[in-house]
Amino acid sequence: MKRKLLVSILLMMLVFTFAVFAGGEDEKGGKAVASDIDYDSLSMAELYELAKQESGVIKVYATTTDASSAIRRFKSDYPDLKDKIEYISCDNDTVASKIEMESETGNINADVMQVKDNSGEIYHELVLYDYISIYRPESVTKHISEDLLEFGLPLYSTFNPWYYNTKMYPDGVPLKSWWDIVEGYDTSTGSYYDASGVNHQFWTIYTKDINGPSYASLFCQLIIDADKLEQQYEKQYGKKLEYTYNDKLNNMPGVMEFPKDNAGVELFYRFSQMKMTELNDGDGVVDAVDQSINGPTLGLASASKLDNADMGMNVAWVIGLEPYTAFQSCSYSYLVNGSDNPAGSRLYIMYCMGGDDGQSGCYTAFDKRGSWSIRDDVEYFKNGKTVEEVILTEPDFDKIYAMYPNVTAYFKYWRSKAK
Questions:
Q1: Which residues pair with 312 in a beta bridge?
Q2: Which CATH superfamily does the domain covering 2-157+329-384 fall into?
Q3: Is the pLDDT at 9 greater than 70, yes or no?
């Protein structure tokens, strides 16, 4: 009885708020927003009752097909909304500009955006400029580490690992740290070629686009953690790290700038000088590792590509690197400001998150290779490895966002100078 009374009161508040804002627009030129309701404290049942009163269609912009599966389940569990929600597939490279354009022109179409934010771009360019907002349902966020909540509401976490060939290395790949990946670098020549012109690069390298957010951001974090890399080098090799990139700098303020004597930059420079093949598709990367026709091979791709191992490929993640293997990357859900489905949008996000108890929704549907649950009351089983086993660090998106343009510019510049 109390529950029904609360819902009735909330509905009256909603109607009153719409009346106050009738014909009005929010500060971004979008649709009116009912802002007097404390949505963060509402249960899924309460959100459902409010959502049934909304007239719009919930448009979910997502960069993963996981959203399509989630929406199919959502329609089944909330039949009154089955014709009022739609999945729109978006590309990682264009979804941010699409949201901005819709808001600036006053033609807001999206209600929810689900996307990875490896570079901090989504937070710094959309959240901080009020194009989108972070939903923090109290019953869910109490089960998530505060470190993961700083830049958005995470759905699940993953990472971008190196892959190796398990047939070539049945007992595990002999890599202790990131320094082993750049093995064969000659400090006297500043390249992988010695004075006589012989190439000593040990690993054959395949990657996706290093200048893409997932991979450039990883090198950003390594540069940020230069002290850890320097300490690891001295621990592993028993000598001081020699900085060979200082005379290769071409700093241009506001365009590309790197500090001197930074272990992360030294690693990045050595990596940029390697002979490597960049591919457009992660499946192609792991296929190249599986083939390994040029000897010892490493490939950099998303963790989810390990599902190729289930189809017979001889591939596995490189894990346990010091000081860490990668950073813990999250897929986030955001609310689009100006949506005319404030309750329905939140209900969908809550449904994806598993609701109050982690089970009242489709949260376990995201349990797959390369994904971890970020809820402390729900465990994923298909990954096979823990975050601690892999050795992941937390990203610093404020610093990554500032470093990102320098990494992408210098990678292009240094690649152009590589032999």
A1: none
A2: Periplasmic binding protein-like II (3.40.190.10)
A3: no
